[in-house]
């Protein structure tokens, strides 16, 4: 099963995350199927998220399950995390 989860990058006390489509059995920083964007929690709101919305919607439509954190981030960019739906 494919999941959408964040992969931690950056350094100590300066986190940076990449949104990835991964196999559920892979470790957090393991093998990635596709990179879908990034999330930087320490900058102002307008430059904090950069996701490829069309690819995220594709993965949701084929049954990928987002993690809880990814689910809240997707709502911020107006992508409904339930498969086959969109908020706009």
Account of the 3D structure:
This protein is an alpha+beta fold and 88 residues long. It has one domain (2-76): 2-Layer Sandwich (S16 Ribosomal Protein, Chain: A), CATH 3.30.1320. Helices cover 20% and strands 35% of the residues. The chain contains 2 helices and 5 strands, in the order ββββαβα. It has helices at residues 53-61, 68-76; strands at residues 2-11, 14-23, 34-39, 49-51, 65-66. A 5-stranded mixed β-sheet has the order 4-3-2-1-5. A hairpin with a 2-residue loop joins strand 1 (2-11) and strand 2 (14-23). It is globular, with a radius of gyration of 13 Å. The mean pLDDT is 89.
Topology:
Layout: E1 2-11, E2 14-23, E3 34-39, E4 49-51, H1 53-61, E5 65-66, H2 68-76
Parallel strand pairs: 1-5
Antiparallel strand pairs: 1-2, 2-3, 3-4
| Secondary-structure-derived class | alpha+beta
Kindly report the average pLDDT value. 89
Helix segment tally: 2
Helix content: 10-25%
CATH class: Alpha Beta
Span of the ends, CA to CA: 27 Å
Largest sheet: 5 strands, mixed
pLDDT below 50 for ≥5 consecutive residues: which ranges? none
Task: Please indicate the percent range of residues in DSSP E strands (runs of 2 or more).
Answer: 35-45%
**How many structural domains can be distinguished in the coordinates?**
1
Using the CA coordinates, give the radius of gyration: 13 Å
Which CATH-level-2 architecture? 2-Layer Sandwich
C-alpha geometry: globular
Question: What is the tally of beta strands?
Answer: 5
Q: Strand-and-helix sequence, N→C?
A: EEEEHEH
Going by CATH, what is the homologous superfamily?
A: Ribosomal protein S16
């Amino acid at each position: 099963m494919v999941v959408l989860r964040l992969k931690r990058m950056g350094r100590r006390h300066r986190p940076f995350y990449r949104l990835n489509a991964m196999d559920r059995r892979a470790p957090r920083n393991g093998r990635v199927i596709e990179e879908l964007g990034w999330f930087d929690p320490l900058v102002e709101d307008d430059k904090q998220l950069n996701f490829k919305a069309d690819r995220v919607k594709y993965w949701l439509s084929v049954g990928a399950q987002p993690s809880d954190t990814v689910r809240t981030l997707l709502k911020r960019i107006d992508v409904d995390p339930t498969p086959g739906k969109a908020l706009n």
